[in-house]
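Module 6 notes. Inverse folding takes a fixed backbone as the condition and produces residue identities as the prediction. Think of it as a translation problem where the source language is geometry and the target language is the twenty amino acids. Below is one complete input and output pair. Work through it position by position during the lab.
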């Protein structure tokens, strides 16, 4: 926190200089512009939850760091974990759809694919009062032209942590941070302890490098 306060002070000083001494209000506006330029944005996303143990630990770590994330939930995993879904919304995270049974939408009928999405939308709505419009199809297999009452935005990823292939936190962290760039969407899972540990280390490392974490909605639509 001290480093961020110092950075803001430096930017305010620089902003006053750049504004030609035209007052603090103008300087603050200029400082805000400089801060925006200094913080490339990326999104942390988590699939396959909620998990009764690991999702809660992840939410604790994100809250401590004041970092928003995007959670793509499996509908059947919401049952018994309704409190975690409500907490996600309360703490500013974006909640998305990951089908009800984690199925490949291209390998089932159109009616079954719609049901997988709608069942999960209903589960999320029951707990948040909001019907999600972002969906991450399992395996990245989105089925085009499915007819819903709301627009569903399929969300892919740029950085795959492959955290499900290993329980080695160090390897997961290295895989994520080595090639990350502005605008990337990082794919992780909140159903393993190693993934939670890695995600929080990734957050610390990338924040130290000047990245700002935002939700998928903020990254793609703003």
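Target side of the pair, the amino acids:
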């Amino acid at each position: 926190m001290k480093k961020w306060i110092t950075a803001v002070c430096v930017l305010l000083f620089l902003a006053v200089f750049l504004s030609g001494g035209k007052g603090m209000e103008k300087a603050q506006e200029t400082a805000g512009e400089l801060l925006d330029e200094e913080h490339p944005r990326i999104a942390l996303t988590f699939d396959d939850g909620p998990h009764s143990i690991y999702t809660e630990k992840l939410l604790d770590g994100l809250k401590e760091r004041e970092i928003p994330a995007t959670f793509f939930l499996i509908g059947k995993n919401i049952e018994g974990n309704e409190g975690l879904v409500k907490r996600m919304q309360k703490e500013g995270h974006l909640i998305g759809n990951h089908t009800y049974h984690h199925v490949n939408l291209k390998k089932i009928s159109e009616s079954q694919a719609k049901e997988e999405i709608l069942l999960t939308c209903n589960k999320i709505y029951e707990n948040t009062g909001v019907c999600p419009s972002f969906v991450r199809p399992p395996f990245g297999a989105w089925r085009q032209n499915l007819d819903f009452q709301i627009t569903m935005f399929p969300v892919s990823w740029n950085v795959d942590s492959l955290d499900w292939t290993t329980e080695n936190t160090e390897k997961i962290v290295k895989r994520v941070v080595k090639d990350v760039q502005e605008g990337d969407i990082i794919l992780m899972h909140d159903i393993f302890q190693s993934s939670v540990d890695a995600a929080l280390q990734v957050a610390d490392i990338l924040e130290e490098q000047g990245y700002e974490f935002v939700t998928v909605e903020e990254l793609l639509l703003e």
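Reference fact for the lab report: Residues 170 and 198 are 7 Å apart (CA to CA).
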